[in-house]
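Following up on my earlier thread - several people asked me to post the actual chain instead of describing it. Fair enough. Here it is, all 302 residues.
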Amino acid sequence: MTQGYTRSLSRSEVEWLEALEAVAAAGKLAVAPLAGTPAGRTVLGRGGGGDITLALDGVTEDTMLAVLARSAPGPYSVVSEEVGVVTGPVGAVKVIVDPVDGSLNAKHGLAPYCAALAVAYGETMDDVAIAYTADYTREVSFAAVRGAGVVRRPAAPSAAVSAGGASTGPAQGAEVEVVLLEAGRPHGYSFGYADLARLAGEGAGSEMRVRQIGSLALSLGYLAAGIADVLFAPVASRSVDVAGGLLMVWESGGDAAALDQTETRRQPLDLERRAPFVAWRAGLDGERIEAAARAILGGRSG
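Reply from S.P.:
Thanks for posting it. Predicted structure:
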């Protein structure tokens, strides 16, 4: 759990990482018999974020929050997609929980989907200090601690030291080859598929490819690990989906930009749908990528 970081972790950081790992492991066991089944697709109502809650969402969240109650090393509040905001005592840390990120995939039994977890010591994205994302469909996880880097488990072959200092994936140059897209419902956008080539820049040629995997949290983990190059997310996203993943990107030396007039790091940790955004791995020209993303949207927020 503590190997691969660029500094020694505090006792509190280790304990919270262990708690998040236990919570994610419990979620994986809970969702496994429900994914892709009629029972898992049973509608329970609407969650705190306003979306329909399926049985696979509700059962997984209940299981995870029960484990969190036993494993947390200190007082906490919860922001979770189904139960909503549960306020803890004064001074409590904020635990961000998306029990099944990629729940549409899980509903149909389509990989991937994951647990997306984070711990924050304040009220905004910039206050996220610990993050853990675990792929429910593979034995892959990503973890980050502020000021200590991001670690992928299992480690990638020929792992290299990233700009943030942590062991993640193979070294990457300035070429954009894999662009991840998370755009939600297609009728909400007017850009063309060919417009996405702008994210790779001039001379991208035939090497640039677009992939849509259905999980913002895993997409951000892939950027942090150098597996993908750019994530274009013209959909307004919730903190439960991206809070931990953005910490991973920042800790790996990458960055992100909101595609409206807000600042990504100042966005509140709540259940409101916030700005569309673009994110990129270390080693790329962020100003160029942000400008290209804005040009694709043509001033629209999606």
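Helices lie at 11-31, 55-71, 103-108, 216-224, 239-251, 286-297. That should answer part of your original question.
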